[in-house]
Amino acid sequence: MVIKMKIIKAKDYNDMSRKAANIISAQVIMKPDCVLGLATGSTPVGTYAQLVDWYNKGDLDFSGITTVNLDEYKGLTKENDQSYYYFMHEHLFGKVNVKPERTFLPDGTEPDSDKACSDYNKVIADVGGVDLQLLGLGHNGHIGFNEPSEIFEAETHCVDLTESTIKANQRFFASIDEVPRQAYTMGIKTIMQAKKILVVVSGADKAAIVKEAFFGPITPKVPASVLQLHNDVTVVADEAALSELK
Ligand code: F6R
Fold it and tell me: Side by side, which strands form the sheet with 182-185?
């Protein structure tokens, strides 16, 4: 039986963020010791801000949760303000009561890619898998840093970022030369093993890839298309991102 992914239409970015934060907060309330898979990038910033707001109001408690992030740039230290570690601290970890020792990202400072990846696979296995995985959607259909490819990579691996991803991420760096060329990312199998998946998408510039990824053929050339095979995916997208769908 094919289970259709749920698509929740939000009015705009703020509405998308609130709806996504509601789904995450329901997960934390229902299972206070859950494992959340987390994403960086622009799209989830508002979702994290909403969660922080509810935490400040006393409505949410993160003290029992564990987090595993999707990815990290290879070569950036935790102190580098472009590292995903830094991002998570700025937007969530430093603002709520999650236990620092229960937050995990691939180690960007580990130069040995095989070691970094196998260490991270072990972390994910040790925490017992992901209950709810939050994902953004790249313009080329990437999820995590699983870039378009001939194959779906199963587990954590080191990727060469594509030109389009390097250009998209350039906005965060002083110059394009400073954008790292490689990253460590969770693989497709690990993402697909999450019990639930929540995808957040915003903006007209994502409308074409939303249609292609969620209604086009399932292919590693559009990595997010594999999500069509997962039986519990919710996409929360604003009207602009859904504008190419009937
Ligand atoms: C971030 C990540 C990426 C982003 C994607 C969309 O951890 O893994 O896949 O989710 O590049 O980024 P934004 O939200 O900046 O459009």
Answer: 71-73, 182-185, 157-160
The dihedrals phi and psi of 197, each to the nearest 5 degrees, come to -125, 135
Find the 129 Cα to ligand 1 centroid distance in Å. 21
Output the residue whose Cα is nearest ligand 1's atom 11.
Answer: 138
Ligand 1 centroid to Cα of residue 1, in Å, is 30
- Other C-beta atoms closer than 10 Å to the C-beta of 82 total 15
72 lines ligand 1 (CB under 6 A): no
Ligand 1 centre from 136 Cα, in Å?
A: 5
Q: What is the pLDDT along the chain (246 residues), one digit of tens a residue?
A: 566 799 999 999 999 999 999 999 999 999 999 999 999 999 999 999 999 999 999 999 999 999 999 999 999 999 999 999 999 999 999 999 999 999 999 999 999 999 999 999 999 999 999 999 999 999 999 999 999 999 999 999 999 988 988 998 898 889 999 999 999 999 999 999 999 999 999 999 999 999 999 999 999 999 999 999 999 999 999 999 999 998
Known catalytic residues?
Answer: 71, 140, 142, 147
Please state, in angstroms and rounded to a whole number, the distance separating the CA atoms of residues 30 and 20.
Answer: 16
Main-chain phi, psi angles of 198, to 5 degrees: -125, 120
Q: Which two tokens stand for residue 99?
A: 């236990």
Q: What number of residues does the chain have?
A: 246
Q: Look at the block and give the residue holding tokens 């030109």.
A: 163
Q: Whose CA is nearest to atom 4 of ligand 1?
A: 136
